[in-house]
Design brief:
The complex is a heterodimer of chains A (299) and B (511).
Chain A (H helix, E strand, L loop, with lengths): L12 E6 L3 H6 L7 E5 L9 H14 L6 E5 L8 H8 L6 E4 L5 H17 L8 E6 L2 H5 L1 H5 L5 E6 L1 H7 L11 H14 L2 E4 L8 H14 L3 E4 L5 H8 L3 H19 L5 E3 L2 E3 L1 H18 L5
Parallel strand pairs in A: 1-2, 1-8, 2-3, 3-4, 4-5, 5-6, 6-7, 7-8
Antiparallel strand pairs in A: 9-10
Helix pairs in contact in A: 2-3, 9-10, 11-12
Chain B lengths: L4 H5 L4 H4 L16 H7 L7 H8 L6 E4 L9 H11 L5 E5 L9 H6 L3 E6 L1 E2 L1 H8 L7 E3 L2 H10 L6 E6 L1 E2 L5 E2 L14 H9 L2 E6 L19 E4 L6 H4 L10 H16 L7 E5 L3 H17 L3 E8 L1 H8 L3 E9 L2 H9 L3 E3 L2 H5 L12 E5 L2 E3 L4 E2 L10 E2 L3 H7 L2 E5 L3 E2 L2 E2 L1 E2 L14 E4 L2 E4 L4 H9 L4 E2 L1 H12 L7 E10 L5 E8 L3
Parallel strand pairs in B: 1-2, 1-6, 2-3, 3-5, 5-26, 6-9, 9-10, 11-12, 11-15, 12-13, 13-14, 15-19, 16-22, 19-23, 24-25
Antiparallel strand pairs in B: 4-18, 7-8, 16-17, 20-21, 23-24, 26-27
Helix pairs in contact in B: 8-9, 11-12, 13-14
Chain lengths: 299, 511
């Protein structure tokens, strides 16, 4: 199935699907996640790696994922499995390859070189397959800026918190322990003009805790979050729906700008406050988000 | 006293009124305390054998049971063992339903004690054996409403009803719980009430004889002939478990959420609506999303009907549901609510669903029902599995679907490698004529009978497709299973709620 990655798109939710579970793979699209991430890495036991690779290869070739973004998380190249994964998934058609445990820009470059080689080998136009880098260590966090800027194929950088907190010699708690990493990754992503994606929230039954974390990453500025259970998608998406009040204000801003432009003036004001460029940019983004959220995809 | 004889003779039927003279119809006035009397002059019989003898039961007659003890029932097996020991043969067993625990009936069928069965459903080994040709006479499957109607009309005459009751006083006032102690047992005894009212003789089997009057009661003493104290009428663990939790299966939740959207968009979620949720993860979970929408819209439900779970009673206690009409309590929370909440009301099977009388199902706005199979004509099967073997029960499915203004059938598009939407269901239980919407995890289909409904759903942004499209999708995913191989022999007859034959179940061919 022909797929080509898009840099800019809605990525509120990226749903992990174990690459060795046929039922979950075939159902993956029904839950409304923006991106589906078929996993060949941590959710697949070492003895299942070959079977999962074959299954994901065939799923990519045969299943209709609709307008969803299809991501495959490969094993890291150092394990020797990563290249086998790429060989299987690229000819089958994949939007984005998620590189795990990215510690440096060199990791991205190494992976990109393999992707490009495989694209050439199969006559696929170079640059068809996108990438995202998951940062899961202190070294990776400190290198976030160079990682995010390491390739034009990168659609975003993501935080992998479980490995990261272990590296820090701490555990996950209220989010304080992740503040530095989240801020680094977010700023690196924004500086490179790509998406910033947050880590999973693993206590599936704690909806309150999940929503608190979602509120936090929304405040920080993240584009979205990985989810491990379909039940998390709906509350996650709900938190991205702009409030009626904010939306009204955004439309009013756009209207004021239109009027000012019609008058030949570059300066507009709303309720006595000057509307400058950042305000307009935010309003435009909010309206775009609201429209994207409204879209209903037929399953 | 002077009597104007002419004036008296103008009263109609006067001859019948006074043919016996004054005081002829009243027993002598008694002076013992009522407590003393209630322990000495009552309907309690020492043994089940004695009660059976007194009922006048004979071979060839019809006996009945209720299924409120579900898979914890010990009444049916004990009574049948006793009847077999006493030499009865050729009996018709008419139960409101039968469960896997009733596998010992196979022996009684093979020995000729039971020659015919009428039930809402069969499960486990007994169902398997029936599907493989155990009985000469086909099993008759009726809906809860159909059974109640047949009993009342005399189409299914019951000679003796053996009704297990978790609490009963010495005169026969019986119930599924007790206000005198912490007993909850089975909550409502709705299905047993029809048997008690219309059976020629009624025997209550109880493990809990309580003081008179056992009020409130499900079955009144005037419907009861004998009471047999028993050590064991059922296993509490099999009768009922704590609380029905909302499913955590994301696919079922997705289906439930879509079902709630459909109901709202269809216009049936308004202040004062009525509803029923069938059993099954997705249908029960729909209540959760209905609740969210009710809070959002600030509306209330006038009544919830049917098999009742703790989820419904929690909404009642939250003030979201005004009344509960409970024919069967599904969990301990529901039983507790029946006991404690005065507007949680116990109803019988006849009032629940009989087409012959005023029935509560006829007042439903919507019902959410599960399905094993749905076909492209919207017919639904809840009785036979994808292997053709009987493994379910009709329950109130066709009654509620027919009664409700909107019937929503929920099912996953595929179960493992088996498609749920197919060309023709194995067994028609609920005809497409009373099914309005099918909701699956992969899309929604509206019966072409209701074009206005499809319009409303589309207007609300719900993508509506055709049932054919859903069937094709299922086939794309899992392929088309080989047809089930049956013999020509009929092992079951399925009656619609008006007790007309809607389909038959045939014996499966051995491989």
């Amino acid at each position: 199935m022909e797929r080509r990655f898009t840099k800019d798109r809605l990525r509120r939710s990226m749903m992990f699907v174990p690459g060795n579970n046929p039922g979950m793979i075939s159902d993956a699209r029904i839950y409304g996640a923006d991106s589906i991430m078929l996993d060949l890495e941590d959710s697949v036991a070492y003895t299942e790696k070959d079977a999962a690779r074959l299954l994901v290869h065939n799923a990519l070739k045969t299943l209709d994922f609709g307008r969803k973004e299809v991501v495959v998380r490969i094993n890291d190249l150092a394990s020797g499995l990563g290249v086998l994964d790429l060989e299987a998934i690229i000819p089958a058609g994949v939007h984005v390859v998620r590189l795990p445990k990215t510690d440096s820009a060199q990791d991205v470059a190494d992976c990109e070189a393999e992707i490009a080689r495989i694209e050439r080998k199969h006559g696929i136009p170079e640059g068809t397959v996108g990438m995202m880098a998951a940062i899961e260590s202190a070294r990776g966090v400190l290198n976030a800026q160079s990682i995010a800027a390491a390739s034009d194929r990168l659609i975003g950088v993501a935080l992998g918190a479980e490995d990261y907190v272990t590296d820090l010699k701490t555990t996950r708690s209220d989010g304080t322990e992740l503040l530095f990493a989240r801020s680094m990754i977010l700023n690196a992503a924004r500086a490179a003009g790509i998406a910033a994606l947050d880590t999973v929230y693993s206590d599936v039954n704690n909806e309150e805790g999940f929503l608190a974390e979602v509120a936090l990453i929304r405040k920080l500025g993240f584009d979205g979050k990985s989810v491990i259970n379909p039940r998390q998608i709906e509350p996650l998406h709900r938190s991205f729906v702009p409030s009626e009040k904010d939306l009204k204000k955004a439309y009013a801003v756009m209207e004021a700008i239109r009027e000012a432009n019609a008058r030949g003036s570059g300066v507009a004001s709303l309720n006595g406050k000057m509307i400058d460029k950042p305000v307009v940019t935010r309003a435009r983004r909010l309206i775009a988000l609201a429209e994207a959220v409204e879209e209903v995809e037929e399953v | 006293m002077t009597m104007d004889k002419n004036a008296i003779e103008r009263i109609p039927h006067i001859g019948e009124i006074c043919h016996r003279g004054p005081f002829a119809g009243v027993p002598e006035k008694r002076t013992a305390t009522f407590q003393d009397r209630s322990w000495r002059q009552n309907k309690v019989v020492e043994s089940l054998e004695e009660a059976i003898r007194r009922t006048g039961l004979q071979s060839g007659m019809t006996i009945s049971f209720h299924h409120h003890f579900r898979n914890g029932d010990h009444v049916v097996n004990q009574v049948l063992d006793t009847l077999a020991r006493m030499g009865f043969r050729d009996l018709t067993l008419a139960a409101s339903s039968l469960a896997a625990v009733h596998a010992p009936l196979i022996d009684h069928i093979q020995n000729g004690v039971i020659t015919h069965i009428e039930t809402s459903g069969l499960r486990g080994e007994l169902a398997e054996a029936v599907s493989r040709g155990l009985m000469d006479c086909p099993v008759v499957f009726r809906s809860h409403g159909g059974r109640a109607a047949a009993i009342r009309s005399g189409e299914l005459p019951i000679d003796v009803a053996f009704l297990g009751a978790p609490s009963c006083d010495p005169y026969g006032n019986a119930n599924g719980y007790s206000r005198d102690d912490s007993l909850l047992a089975c909550g409502s005894m709705g299905y047993a009430r029809t048997d008690a009212k219309y059976a020629r003789q009624v025997v209550i089997l109880t493990n809990h004889l309580v003081r008179y009057p056992n009020a409130p009661w499900a079955i009144p003493e005037y419907d009861v002939d004998y009471i047999v104290p028993m050590d064991d009428i059922g296993d509490p663990k099999g009768i009922m478990s704590g609380a029905t939790r909302y499913t955590k299966n994301p696919k079922e939740l997705l289906i439930a959420q879509t079902a709630a959207r459909v109901i709202d968009a269809a216009g049936y979620l308004y202040d004062g609506f009525s509803m029923q949720m069938g059993s099954g993860g997705a249908s029960l979970a729909t209540a959760r999303f209905i609740r969210e929408r009710m809070l959002e819209k600030d509306i209330r439900c006038r009544f919830a009907l049917g098999g009742i779970t703790g989820q419904i009673t929690a909404m009642h206690e939250e003030g979201l549901i005004d009344r509960i009409l409970d024919v069967q309590s599904f969990d301990l929370d529901a039983a507790l609510s029946l006991k404690n909440n005065r507007f949680h009301h116990q109803i019988g099977a006849t009032y629940y669903a009989s087409f012959l009388s005023a029935a509560a199902v006829d007042q439903l706005d919507f019902v959410v029902l599960s399905a094993l199979e749905i076909d492209t004509d919207f017919n639904v099967n809840v009785l036979t599995g994808s292997d053709g073997v009987i493994r379910g029960a009709i329950g109130g499915h066709p009654d509620a679907a027919a009664g409700a203004s909107l019937s929503v059938v929920v099912a996953p598009l595929t179960r493992g490698r088996i498609p749920s939407i197919i060309d023709r269901v194995n067994t028609v239980v609920t005809p497409g004529a009373v099914v309005d919407v099918v909701v699956t995890d992969q899309g929604v289909a509206v019966n072409p009978r209701r074009p206005e409904l499809a319009e409303r759903l589309r207007a609300a942004g719900i993508p509506v497709g055709t049932i054919q499209r859903l069937k094709e999708k299922a086939e794309t995913l899992v392929g088309r299973p080989d047809p089930i191989r049956y013999t020509d022999r009929v092992v079951g007859v399925v009656l619609y709620r008006d007790n007309t034959i809607i389909d038959t179940v045939r014996q499966i061919a051995e491989p």
